[in-house]
Structures are given as C-alpha cells and as structure tokens.
Amino acid sequence: MFDDFFDDGFFTPQKRVNSMRCDIKETDNDYKMSIELPGFKKEDITINLDQGYLNISANTQNENEEKNDEGHVIRKERYSGSMSRSFYVGDQYEAGDFNASFDNGELNITIPKKDAYIEDHSSRIPIE
Fold first, then answer.
1. Which residues form the SHSP domain (predicted)?
2. 84-119: per-residue pLDDT in tens?
3. Which of 4, 81, 95, 103 has its CA 20 to 30 A from that of 41?
C-alpha cells in the first residue's frame, strides 16, 4: 500500500542535480553571485582562489533519519555529501578582493570589476 502511495509522482522527488545553483548579476562596479546551499552551515563551506579560478565547495553530513516502528528508514530526501563548483574569474584577482556572506542557505559573493590583463602568447610574426 505505502509503496504505491509514495511513488505516485507527488511524493517522488524529481531527479536532483547535486550542483550549486548560481545567479550572477552584473552592476556598474562589480559582479554579484548568489549560490543556493540549503541545509548547509557557514562552517560547511570553503571558498578558495587558485590560478584565476574561484573554487567553492560544501560538505554536510545529515544523520537524521525517519524510522518506522521496526527501525527501517521510510524515506530519506535530505542531501548528505559534498559538492563543488569552479568559476573562472581571471588572474587579476587576489583573495582579498572578494566579499562573501552566508545567510538562510544562500552564499553571496561580490567580485569587483577589474580590467583583465591579457598576456599575448601568440607566435604569429607580423608582416610589415
């Protein structure tokens, strides 16, 4: 009876992608990233800058389980594990350029606009 009840489409979760959903907005002076991390705590999140890549990772372990009278898990839908995402921001940034905050399951990162330094690695010989 319960098998059909929980699998009727309403209670069955859609296939979930274990990635961080991110919105990026551009203003005149900066970029604002807003990343969904529901169920995570500030302590679970790590942000690093490495060779022009902004790397964001989050790790959580959820030990809460619903059990029936016999102690079997009926349903477990909360995410437990780790996820990460990288964004190329350029070599012109240092870690101190970023401003990050976390509130209500949302990580907000502000990145100031800077002129990109483009190093010319071409081997083309100009013709005069």
1. 13-128
2. 999 999 888 988 899 999 999 999 999 999 875 555
3. 95
Could you tell me which of 52, 48, 35 has the C-alpha nearest to residue 107? 35
Distances (CA, A) of 55 to 20, 37, 83, 84, 109: 12, 15, 11, 7, 12
Task: Give CA–CA dist 20/17, Å, rounded.
Answer: 8
Write the CATH number of the domain with boundaries 19-112. Answer: 2.60.40.790
In this structure, the number of other CB atoms found within 10 A of the CB of residue 36 comes to: 13
Name the pairing type of β-strands 106-112 and 45-50. Answer: unpaired
Domain residue limits, the chain: 19-112
